Amino acid sequence: MRFPPIVPGFSQLIHGGDYNPDQWMDMEVWKEDMRIAKAMGINSLSVGIFSWTALEPREGEYSFGWLDTILDMMAAQGMKAMLATPSGARPAWLSQKYPEVLRVSEDGLRNQHGGRHNHCLSSPVYREKVQKINTLLAERYKDHPALGAWHISNEYGGECFCPLCQERFRQWLQRKYDSLDALNHAWWTAFWSHTYTDWSQIEAPSRRGETSVHGQKLDWKRFTTEQFIDFYRAETEPLKRITPNVPCTTNLMGTYPGIDYFALAKALDFASWDNYPQWTGYTKDDVPLAAETAFKHDLMRGVKQRPFFLMESCPSATNWRPYARLHRPGVHILQSLQAVGHGADSVQYFQFRKSRGSSEKLHGAVVDHVGHEHTRVNEEIARLGSMLQGLSGVVGQDTPAKAALLYDWQNAWALNDAQGLNNVDKKYFDTVMDHYRALWSQGVQLDILSEDADLAGYDLVVAPMLYMVREGLGQRLRAFVEAGGTLMSTFGSGYVDENDLCYLGGFPGPLRATLGIWCEEIDVLLPGESNEILYHGQRYRLFDYAEQLHLEGAVSLAEYRKDFYAGKPALTVNALGKGRAYFLAGRLEDGFMRAFYQDLLAEAGIERFELPYGCSLALRGEGEEEYAFLLNFAAEACKVNLSGVDALSGERLEAVELEGHGVRVLKRLKRG
Ligand code: GLA
Ligand code: ZN
């Protein structure tokens, strides 16, 4: 299926990035910027992200002239602006006159003015000031031809512990639980004499106070997510009213742990995110990082189940990384087309023109301090620019996925908060990646979904470490399997409900009957320790966890070979209705994961491809409109035995030769 373009009527892939003309305020510089943008094939710039002081230098005194000029210059060359609301950082006069707009840290101290992302989300003054400036921006530019989308604030994140936020937390809890009895039960407060007898006694969990009541900590995280959603709604209220047809987004940060992005994304018109992988180039195997980055793209597509924007990425050195390494030749195009292959309808950068001063002055950019475009980095950006123009048929194309992987923020919150299992690292993300990598390396197209998603239409659901099983999910997974689906489940699943209360009567709680097993105990392996299983006569090592199972209808496919549980099941399958439910009791090495999934995919009838190590395949669209992105993350050249037509050159290829860090986009990919 094909979605309409994110920017209405603009059916090119967006190419551009964050632009801060207000750091220059010089017409000669701006003219050069426009010229260079054109030479790079850039058709969009994100403006105004941290421009509040430039727009309102003193309270109620406005200065829009510079932005008028920039937007006019952009429109003159057919460019689209991602026009930002400036709430990510505030003017000094605002903090000085209204100190309540500043955040309060976990230690209870009011922050000083500095930095950014340093505002209280509850502050009525802050909300009022933001709404005012947003209203003026919307009124002024509502009919401007350059206005493409609204870029709301910047990278929402953090928490505020001020009295206003604490009060809102209590109100939110009252709405959620209605009675204190219900709250006390959900939070299991009889533990350590924590029972509340009045709503006013409740505080935000913090290192100065409560760190042990898991239900409370979980609710605080949910509340923080709600705070951002509520703030986003307040910010966008004037925009939705004045420019109802201009889509709004805020730039997300992949797996950032502080906000449940599945919840926040419901409020967005489209998702966008900022991607800064630290590629090494040659010295280390970048393939696991390539898989991780692919996963994050799929996740960012998953939060809205439709194409997204890559709102920021770095064309060269990311200055805040421990080692601000250059991208090796080809890597910029590779990482950009990886994003597009996984569902991005844009490639955007931080930053267009490099700052001259302050902390981002050495961050990679399109326009370097040298001031012209005759650089190595620009050569690759320009080449990418023309490739993106040639690939405009990709815009709006969906990813044809028959397999889904469940990744869930609330699950991660609860699991990582648990005291028990492995307290150094629960390995949720590692476990998710074990499964993702096995599928990604075989060219399987995957959707990433939350626990609440509709599973209809999928043939395979992979649910690694589903520690928290919320109300209804057990039944939905059961129905999915009964109807013919394949479920892949693992150790660490079915321990707690949505309140972080343990399931009574045997783990994996609501998954027990579906999986046909009872997990009596779980052993935790020490670093460097391993157990072993045999699969198709081959030995594979098992790490980190060893769940102790009893078969209750399932059959064992492999057993532990060491320790006091040698001979006990480590991999099981349960036939249920028309489907099957698998359970893997520990973390297995990659070789097993690959071999096992190869069998599983054949059984579930899901398309897979034979790809050299480090090469991945991302598909968008269907039939004549199918685009196949072949991406080589290895430093060595490789050959892929797939034929098709090069989407850019039209050349017919019987096999695809990829250089190290090379990419090809094919149409009419031949199967079999
Ligand atoms: C983030 C921010 C940008 C910039 C970049 C630098 O993603 O959104 O403003 O600071 O990091 O990499
Ligand atoms: Zn606050």
Describe this structure in words.
- The protein folds into three domains: 334 residues, TIM Barrel (Alpha-Beta Barrel); 202 residues, 3-Layer(aba) Sandwich (Rossmann fold), CATH 3.40.50; 56 residues, Immunoglobulin-like (Sandwich).
- The mean pLDDT is 97.
- It has 672 residues and is of the alpha/beta class.
- The chain has 17 helices and 28 strands.
- The longest helix is centred in the middle third of the chain and has 29 residues.
- It is 30% helix and 19% strand.
- The radius of gyration is 26 Å and the shape is globular.
- The site of alpha-D-galactopyranose has 10 residues, from loops.
- Zinc ion (ZN) binds next to helix 6.
Sequence-ordered SSE layout with sheet pairings:
Layout: E1 14-19, H1 27-39, E2 44-47, H2 52-55, H3 65-76, E3 80-84, H4 92-97, H5 124-141, E4 147-151, H6 163-177, H7 180-187, H8 214-242, E5 248-249, E6 251-252, H9 261-265, E7 272-274, H10 287-302, E8 309-312, H11 331-341, E9 346-349, H12 376-390, E10 403-406, H13 409-417, H14 428-440, E11 446-449, E12 460-463, H15 473-482, E13 486-490, H16 512-515, E14 517-524, E15 531-535, E16 538-543, E17 545-551, E18 555-559, E19 569-576, E20 579-584, E21 587-588, H17 590-604, E22 615-620, E23 627-632, E24 638-640, E25 644-646, E26 652-653, E27 656-658, E28 663-667
Parallel strand pairs: 1-2, 1-9, 2-3, 3-4, 4-5, 6-7, 7-8, 10-11, 10-12, 12-13, 13-20
Antiparallel strand pairs: 14-17, 15-16, 16-21, 18-19, 19-20, 22-23, 23-28, 24-27, 25-26, 25-28
Helix pairs in contact: 5-8, 8-13, 10-14, 14-17
